[in-house]
Every structure is written in C-alpha cells, then in structure tokens.
Amino acid sequence: MILGIPTELAADEARVALVPESAGKLVKSGVTVLVQKGAGTRAGFTDEAYTWHGAKLENAETVLTTANLICKVQKPTVSETRMLARGAHLISLLQPSTSTAEIVALESQGVTAFALELVPRITRAQSMDVLSSQATVAGYKAVLVGASALGKFLPMLTTAAGTIAPSKVCVLGAGVAGLQAIATARRLGGIVSAFDIRAAAAEQIRSLGATVVAQELIAQDSETAGGYAKEQSAAQQEAIQAALRDHLKTMDLVITTAQIPGRTAPRLISTATVRTMNPGAVIVDLAAESGGNCEATKAGETVEIAGVKVIGPVNLAASMPTHASQMLSRNILTFVQHLLKDGTLVVDPADEITGAMMVTGKGTR
Ligand code: NAD
Fold it and tell me: Is 121 touching ligand 1 by the criterion CB < 6 Å?
C-alpha cells in the first residue's frame, strides 16, 4: 500500500493533507508514504520532519503515478488526475456538486474518489469531519481578522489615559464556526451576542457566556434530523432581518456564519442595515463563498459602505495552515484507518461512512 501526498497547486492553499506525525502513524502500520518535496513547507512542516517519521521524499510525478492512495486538500486538476495510476484511490475536498469536469476525469481514469465534505455527521465519523475542524479554524480566525480591521480594542481597559469601553460583537449563525467565533471574541474581552435559527443553538450560545438576540424568532421546527438549519420562508427571512436591524446598529464587529447546506446562504443583513451602523464598524462574512449573509459582501474582497468595512474572506482556514493542516490530517488519517484492513484498502460502499463519501468508482463495484 503506497500513499502519496502531493504539493497543493492552488496559490491560496497553504495546507497539507497529512502532517509528519500522521504520516509516521501510517508508516508504523506498514504503509509506504511518499511525500512530494516541499509539500508541507507552507504549513510549517519540513521535509526533514517527514523523513524523520519514516516517509520518503519524491518528486510530483513519482508521487502521483505510483501511489494507490492520494491524499490532497483541494481537488486534483484534470491534468493531475490523468497522471494517477488506474484503479488508484483519492481522498480530498471535491466540491462534488460543482466539479463536473474533475469528477468525469476521475471516473474515466478509474479512480475511486472520496469527498471529504461528504463525511456523514454522525458520532462515529466525528473525528473524520473536516467541515467541523476547518470551521473551527475559520470561526477563530474571523474574529482576529475582524478585530484587526477594527479601530478599537475588544476588551474594556482601565488605564491612566482613561477608560476604554469594550467592543460589542454579534455573531450570526451559531454552528461550529459561530460558536468558535463567540468563544474567541469572549476571550478577547468583547461583549458578545448571537443569533441562530435553531433552538438547540440558543443554549450553546448562552453556555459560552453570550446573550441571545431575537429569541422570539427561534423556531422549534427549524432543525433537520441531521442537525442542520432548514431554509426559512421569505416572510421569516424578512422578519429575521427586521429583528436584527436595531441590534446591529450598535455593534462594532459582526461575524456572520449562517449556512444552509447545498443552498445559497440566507440573507441576514441588508445594505440598508449596513448604512445604519457606526462608521468604523466591521462585518466579517464567513458565508461569502456561498452568496454571503450580508447583501454587500463580495467574496475575496473588502467593501466599504458608509465607513463600515464588509470583509468576505475566502478559504480562511488555509490562512492558518499549521493547525488547520494538523486537524485536517487527523481527520484524513482516521478515514484512511477506517478503510485499511490488514494493511490494504478495503472499500465497502455499503458502509455508512465509506458509501456516503464515495463520489466515483461506485459503478465499477
Ligand atoms: P452550517 O455551517 O450549515 O450553518 C452554520 C449555522 O448557521 C448553523 O448553526 C445554522 O443553524 C445557522 N443558520 C442557518 N440559517 C440561518 C438563519 N436563517 N438565521 C440564523 N442562523 C442560521 O452548520 P454547522 O456549523 O456545520 O453545524 C450545524 C449543526 O450540526 C450544529 O448543531 C452542529 O453541532 C452539528 N454538527 C454535528 C456533527 C456530528 O454530530 N458529527 C458534526 C458537526 C456539526
């Protein structure tokens, strides 16, 4: 069994799929791990660390053409896929609903591909859940990005130069990223409030020491069996925007994280509301890539409206590549171990986790 770790090709992707420690665990279990020279450098993991853990350093071509299993962060390009051995396996993020050309290429190359974002959100698969691990990173980093763009302290300060009032932070959407944002903003000393449409989230918001806003709009039936939010009606959506309007007017920093899987992100802040906020206020919209929670958001850009900065970060987890890779690597390692039986890959499409993540290769089985 040969596992390959190529260097990520995307300019903004600094993470690596497997960190040296995880590579070492696989080497100990009899797997040959080939790492492209420099694959971990941008995430802070040296070639020497990989070799110390028993991995072998190779060039891109050797890694891609000889591995039975390729582990990547981002989906392979069509030309990378054409280099893979027929019958090889791939584990990576795949964005399956929008990656038609890449998936067709994988299928015609005879590659069995697993999409990391399709991990079922069940207790047994929690340690393989990259959506949660990377959302944790993004939620934390969003507060730091917002705090640095703010012309204010987050904590209250009593100094010889006078007393500084703490900043007010509001987090919209209290799933994995939102709860991490609440915890981080609280640690930095902000006064934190939050809103989520799911009733279960209200309890979690309070347990982190934040207050819940617009409680009257939290619907008991707003959660799917899988724990996600249901899409709200246009009327309910309008009611949420209206209820948040007055509250947001007084906020210094707003972090938005609300998502509905597979849908455009719910609109929670109109441009008219942004115009009512204080100049100098900052909005960090973590839903930028799926349409934005704020009407003014532009993915990958910072827009300024009446002195309010609206930041639309893209792939925020990759901006903290060391710990993001460490967490991602643990998720991937656990999934690889789930597939390994006596040192070889055994793919059982009937398995609840394996079957859910399998995107190509089903037809050949
Ligand atoms: P997500 O990224 O899909 O959404 C983020 C948050 O936005 C969610 O909390 C959602 O309720 C909220 N939201 C959606 N529409 C909204 C609206 N109109 N107004 C306000 N808020 C809105 O969700 P997520 O963070 O990936 O996780 C959602 C749930 O799944 C959480 O309860 C989480 O604890 C649970 N979860 C379970 C597992 C597991 O069991 N393995 C793993 C991860 C997450």
Answer: yes
